[in-house]
Hints:
Strand order of the largest sheet: 2-1-7-6-5-4-3
Oligomer: single chain
Amino acid sequence: MPPPAAQPPAALARSIEAFLADHPCANILEDGRLLFDLRLASCSVSADHGRCLLHLWSEERNLVRTISAIQPRRDTLRLETRRFGQTKPQTLTLVPDPDFRTPTARDTARRRYLRTLEQSLAAHFPGWTPESFRSAMDLEHSFGPAYARGILTKGQSAWAIIGVGPEEPLATIDGVLTLGILWLDYCRDHSNGRRVFHGLRVIVPRGAAATTRTRMAWLNPALAQWELCELNPSTAELTPSPLGHDGNLAIQIPHAFDPQAALERSTVAIDHLRSLLPPELLAATEIRPRGATEIAFSLHGLEYARIRHGLVPGSFVHRDEIFFGAGPSETLLDETTQDLFLDLVDRLFRGRHSLASANDPLFRLQPERWLESVLRRDLSVLATSLGDAHVYSQMFAAASVSCTLLDLVTVTRQGRLAILELKAGDDLHLPLQALDYWLRIRMLHRAGDIARHGYFPGVELSPADPLLYCVAPALHIHPANETVLHALAPAIPWEFIAVDEHWREQCRVVLRKRRNEGLPLSPDSSHPVEI
């Protein structure tokens, strides 16, 4: 059998781009070890001079490899690479998420954790019986194998129990409360009238309770009792973790900058970049400062070029540098890379518009940013009280944020802060991730930091807590979102807004849900579940 035909460098580069478009939280492994987390690193993929070149860099390391072949697997992409000056190939593996354990290792760890959890519960809650614990996949009810779930019973009394092991990724551990709320709802709905479920106990690894502790403090106490415990897997000891409203709210708030001054500072570089764009693309491009020293060029929310204003190394002379690339890719624009930039521009113009093919990776990349760019033009399509004030995107750096959610902050016409969480695809954890951001904005607002740092100049901010809007296309709303939203404390003024599926062409609201429109977690329905 003849050897497989060599893959053209352009095809290799586009395969990598397509994988990154579908998996924005991808990790890169070498010999089974994590090399780069692309949520925290950058990459450049180029196909010029007859080779496909992959450049990866972060605060910890820098790597350049030539890609000679790609082997797609079920959920991964294996890259055959060569170092400069070496002929022996090496392999890098692109995986879609941070949990890169083998299936066998995952299953073994989860079975071991399930046994430890049952033993710990029996020892810590004498007189109560652990029943029907499992971690099997149940797609119909959104339960995945990472979470162990069961019940504790004593006569007609019962508690819903959910736990997550210490070897799971942090994002999975932080997601346990969403699944816990759904598990309690499931137990009550399937109770057949024989037991009363008092509430939910969530079990997290020791030292990993901060996010869940803060979130649980903002659940509705009228619906259930909410308790949190930390489990030490080495000793099987369970320790209660007290809930607190202000835990894990690490916040960094920069001073607001002058957008016009940033644009004027980089006028020459902006004009140069504009001169390279065809008129049609230039007309659709949004040129917006991201900070005092950085200007972004975006097409329907996809940032494809940026200008950075900084010092020349070793001097006090300022200069502008232009970088280009979509997603995590980034390449310095100069005479040697201008043709590569023009190729990207051509592909952007053909692939990133409302009537383009959904199979194009540039069409699929960063859909939340696309939705933001549509709404930014007129937020009043969501609510008549919005649309007049400045809109800040990703306003604050937080301790724990989703790589797929987009946060916008604005104010209503009455001066009340409004937070918008945008999601272009169904996301089980949208409500609690939106809660995280609402809590941070609320804390900053109550401390007076938002006005003090120069945001919303000339606007008298209302002292009321922020409004919370969750926005998603109607056919991409996860069915569990409403259950979780209704479990939030009454003090959180949330509204869920569904927009038409054709929002890329014209955005309009087709469904609106507010708090107190039905309570699926009624405590009166507390009865047992047969498992």
